[in-house]
Fold DUF3887 domain-containing protein.
Amino acid sequence: MRKRLLLVAMLAAAVLALCLAGCSSGGAADREAPKDVEGLPAWADEAAVTAQARDAIDLFVAGDYEGLAALFGDPVPAASDFEKAARAAQDIGAFESYGDVSFAHYDGGASGVAAIVVQLAHCENDDLVYSVGIAEDGKLVGFRIS
């Protein structure tokens, strides 16, 4: 079970890294740094990004990997990546409820600052932590499970 969870975490980290790497070209010297509001970039509304992250998680939990992939900007991850992550996490059991949520941000340079929603999810046998990266245009830039 730990090997599968580790595999899920590594796969999700790779997807997040690839998505964020695509956003990281260009320099931030020409822009004013956004102000942090509870870890979020200045443009982000806590309730809105939490709802958007939970919508993405709900798609993952429901097995709608194509729907989840459609929420991403370029580069769009393959739906099969999410399917592999779900298979690796199946020992955790069915989703039961959401837990605590926290926030961070990622400076993607010329692509702007992404909000990162870190959402705890209680499942039958253990907890999962979802990290969902959201760009200012509303597109997802990362989806990680650990």
About this structure: DSSP finds four helices and four strands in the chain. Residues 15 and 142 are 7 Å apart (CA to CA). Residues 2-23 form the longest helix (22 residues). The first strand starts at residue 95 and ends at 107.
